[in-house]
Amino acid sequence: MSNSVISGARPAQVRVYSLLLVLSAIFMALLGWSAGAYYVPAMCLALLALLLWSGRGGAVFKWVLVANQVGGLVLILALWLGDRIGLGHAKLDVSGVALLLNLLCGGPLASVLGGLMLPGLRDGKRLFSWFNARPA
Amino acid sequence: MNNRVLSLPFLVACAAAGIASQASAASFTGKVTLPDGRPAFGAMLSVFNADHTRKQTVYTAADGTYAIVTPYSGSLALRARLANYDDASTSVDAAADAVGQADLQLKAFADAQAASDALSASAHNAVLAWGRAGDRHDFVSQCNYCHQMGNATTRAPRSHEAWMATITKMEGYLAMVTKSEKIRIASVFEKGFDGQPVKATHDYGATAELARAKVEEWQVGDGFSFIHDMDVASDGKFYGTDEGHDKLWVLDPATAKVEGLDLPPSGLPRGGLFSGMHLAIGVFTGSHGPHSMAQTSDGRIWITNALSSTLMSFDPATKQFKTYAVPGDAMYPHTVRVDKDDIVWFTIVASNQMGRFDPKTGQMTVMRLPSNGFFRWISDMLFPTLMRISSWFPDKVLLLNFSHHRFLGYTVMAFPYGIDVNPKDGSIWYAKLYANRIGRIDPKTMAVTEYETPMSGPRRPRFDADGIFWIPSFDEGGLMRFDPATGKFDAYTVPGVAPGEYETPYALNVYRPTGDIWMAANNSDRVIRFTPATRTFQSYPSPTRVTVLRDFSFTKDGRVCTSQSNLPAYAIEGGVPSYLCIDPAGGERDRAALAAAASGG
Question: Does A36 touch chain B if contact means CB atoms closer than 8 Å?
Answer without folding.
Answer: yes
